[in-house]
Amino acid sequence: MIFYFSGTGNSQAVAQVIATRQQEELVPMIQVDLTVPYLIKENENIVFVFPIYAWRPPQQVIDFIKQIEFENYYNHPITMIATCGENIGETLAVFKKMIHQRKWTLSNAYSLVMPNNDLRYGNIDARDEVQRKLKKVELELEKINQNLTRRATGIYQVEKGPFSYITTYVVGNLFNRFARSTHRFFATDDCISCKICEKVCPIRCITVSKKPIWKNSECTQCLACVNYCPKSAIQYGKRMSRKARYTHPLVAWHQLNQNRKPKD
């Protein structure tokens, strides 16, 4: 069972590779009915794939893990795969604590450096750098799949980065409390009212009439609306207008966070 959450396709692309190789069901977290227990098959791997926002799991991932109920769970191995721009801080510690509270078994954890998609504080990677990172991830996923196939345990290959406690427990907490407002998002006159932003928003906080309107709700700051806009009309503040956008080349907007069965 491969559960995933994705903003611009990086985590979804990783989850798709794992699901295809392991012949496991691919499940977007935002589509799961949390009122119904999820049946876990015998000898099934459970994998959580998600991006890192401000050196922490997205709040939607935290809420999902706290609420999901498994039927027929008996020490099934759980693997965490966190996609990031550079490092993940103390995300592993945060994840371990949640898993322990659910009385589940965490077997392995990995972090994968993906092409940058956060335009608020920088630019996307150059094309050759994107290709270099994706090629490296392809090789790393081969090793992860080998470990899953042979049921390896106790593998923790994560890049915490410098000052990891501060980045996760100070910066990350401040981000969740104060930086998730939607008030800095707006659309320029280049908007064509296509409603792609509304459709890719994982928590449905966007509605479009002539232009998108953001509700001042629990925005994930995933920037799916920004990066998937076909006209680059959606901005976050005044520094983004001339910046290029990034989405994973294998995940089109209509595929984002959708159920996709692994190939035979």
Written description of the protein model:
Pfam families: Fer4, Flavodoxin_5. This is 4Fe-4S ferredoxin. Keywords: 4Fe-4S, Electron transport, Iron, Iron-sulfur, Metal-binding, Transport. This protein has 264 residues and is of the alpha/beta class. It contains seven helices and twelve strands. A six-stranded parallel beta sheet has the order 2-1-4-6-7-8, with helices on both faces. The protein has a two-stranded parallel sheet with strand order 3-5. Helix 1 packs parallel to helix 4. It is globular, with a radius of gyration of 18 Å. The protein starts with a strand and ends in a 28-residue tail after the last strand. Residues 260-264 have low confidence and may be disordered.
Keywords:
Rossmann fold, disordered C terminus, globular, two-stranded parallel sheet, 2 domains, alpha/beta
CATH superfamily of the largest domain: Flavodoxin domain
Proper CATH architecture of the largest domain: 3-Layer(aba) Sandwich
**Main sheet properties:** 6 strands, parallel
First-last Cα distance? 16 Å
- Can you list the strand order of the major beta sheet? 2-1-4-6-7-8
| Number of domains as seen in the coordinates | 2
> Structural class of the secondary elements?
alpha/beta
Rg, Cα atoms, Å: 18 Å
Total count of helical runs of at least 4 residues: 7
Report helical residue fraction.
25-40%
Contiguous low-pLDDT stretches (5 residues minimum) are 260-264
User: What is CATH's topology name of the largest domain?
Assistant: Rossmann fold
Strand content: 15-25%
Organism: Turicibacter sanguinis
GO molecular function: 4 iron, 4 sulfur cluster binding; metal ion binding
Protein name: 4Fe-4S ferredoxin
Keywords: 4Fe-4S, Electron transport, Iron, Iron-sulfur, Metal-binding, Transport
